Amino acid sequence: GDGITSALVAFACSSMVAIGIFIFSVTDATFDAHEFNGMSNADASSQFWDIDGSNSNRSMTKTPIFSKVASDYGPYIDTVRGLIVITLSPILIAYLLLSFVNQCIRYIAAFITCSKRNSIEAFDTYDWRTWITKRTRQQVDDFNSWDDHGKVYRIALYWGIAFTLLQVIVQQFTVVLLSWLIKTTESLPLGVVTIVIFMVGMFLFLLPTTPGGPIYIAAGAVIPSAGKYSLGMVGSVVYCIMLCLVIKLMACAMQQKVIGEGLSNYVTTRRWIGVNSSLVRTMRVVVSEPGMTIAKSSILVGCPDWPTSVLCGILRLDLLPILVGTTPIIFIIIPMVLTGYFAYMASLPPDSYGQMQFPHANTYSAMFAVLSAIAQFASMAAAAFYVESESKRRKDDIDRLPVDLEVHIAEERERISNDAFTQATKWGSSTIFTKWTLRLSVVSMIACCYILQFWQSKCFRHLDMMNTSAEDINILKFVSPLGWTALSFFLVSCSLLAIYLVWAKKETMKLLQKPLRIHLQRDEDSEADNGHDDVFHFMEPSEDLPLKHSSPSNKAEYGSMGSK
């Protein structure tokens, strides 16, 4: 029933948290508790908000824990700030209001008792900042000290766009598609259903953002329905599991041979995969080794399909060992197929006595859904663990890998373009119009995300994939008025962001019109076999390095950013 289903869902959540804590502790990523001793809440909060050291008066380097965080994750702090802005802004506004109420009560108490406690000096020099508490003022100062609010707001918008696409396009509309699939194939023979499931599964797998879970669950509901008379229930489930495994392996083969190998000559493909990144270089070392290891299989199963399979294609690895290493995915497929199977069994009509044919099917479906979530999370955690451990254990092998020079040049051009974009969109030099355009875009995105998150059941009609009619699958009726309101906020936010980006692109192009050259400097240490294998180093123009050189054999000059 609903009670045990809710309990099992809670158990799944607690299991995920427990696994996360276990992995976190195993990888020695925890910090000593004594580093927190003597640190007040205000100090800890302020050092987090100022973790990049932008406020020189209170640098986070005074505390060991924040020094470690800054050294390891400093480049990603704006990403975290953007996530905080998009998720916690309403709560932070409520926090400011509580601080205001707190300070007002202090003023009233000071006025009644004629006391000079609690910032009563504010009566002498009026400032709006004195209407919030000292701790809050310190946190507001740290917020204002951020280097580039525009960058944080843009990242917040990208977080919101990703959430909305995953919440609406992937989650909700995939359910609509699979409901239509189940409704369409309910009266078809097993052979036709197999072909339809195979084609739809291959199509969804070749979309980078679509997970495999909904495909397996839908197959678990459709295949037994079509094959129960010819194969029996148990035979239909086994047949469905093997079909899902074949779909998965065929999708990986197409991603590797067609996309990876077929497009490996294109710099854009290799850049999109990130062949020069430390993560992909580590994966490259692990998946290229002969034989089958736990680390190799964990990466092939737990890492996202697209980067992993396409990387194997770019490296032109043998297909058969890669597919063999991917076969443990069956331990994730089995519980997902059983989730769909028991959901189908629960949807069967009552017998002649009015009793449910399988009264515990809903409970079993929930149990296998929990097992599916745990298996999926465990595979991802195992992949992350082995990538981290192998990056340290095989550091020398990773460093010896050659750098893709064409991708390196493209990344360097992109870096210079991004630097110009950052310079052109500095918050202090932005106009009032562009600032408020970005702010309103963030507000609209926050409204959209909050509506979709907290009132999701009122935004979209509930679809039971096992019992749907053609009218229920109608997209226009599937989205409720509140859902259209949320999507309207999303469109407004994206439109305002587009306006801002058009302005930013124009300002960036103005900077890029200036003469700019990229030079490749040969590394003498590498040529003498005294260093790493990176023969070329990038050097930007300076007084010591003029824009032109008379010895082209030593340095290769590339044109301005406006040319190829």
From TrEMBL:
<feature type="transmembrane region" description="Helical">
    <location>
        <begin position="319"/>
        <end position="344"/>
    </location>
</feature>
<feature type="transmembrane region" description="Helical">
    <location>
        <begin position="229"/>
        <end position="247"/>
    </location>
</feature>
<feature type="transmembrane region" description="Helical">
    <location>
        <begin position="156"/>
        <end position="181"/>
    </location>
</feature>
<keyword id="KW-0812">Transmembrane</keyword>
<protein>
    <submittedName>
        <fullName>Uncharacterized protein</fullName>
    </submittedName>
</protein>
<feature type="transmembrane region" description="Helical">
    <location>
        <begin position="6"/>
        <end position="26"/>
    </location>
</feature>
<feature type="transmembrane region" description="Helical">
    <location>
        <begin position="475"/>
        <end position="503"/>
    </location>
</feature>
<feature type="transmembrane region" description="Helical">
    <location>
        <begin position="188"/>
        <end position="209"/>
    </location>
</feature>
<keyword id="KW-0472">Membrane</keyword>
<keyword id="KW-1133">Transmembrane helix</keyword>
<feature type="transmembrane region" description="Helical">
    <location>
        <begin position="364"/>
        <end position="387"/>
    </location>
</feature>
<feature type="transmembrane region" description="Helical">
    <location>
        <begin position="436"/>
        <end position="455"/>
    </location>
</feature>
<feature type="region of interest" description="Disordered">
    <location>
        <begin position="542"/>
        <end position="564"/>
    </location>
</feature>
<feature type="transmembrane region" description="Helical">
    <location>
        <begin position="83"/>
        <end position="101"/>
    </location>
</feature>
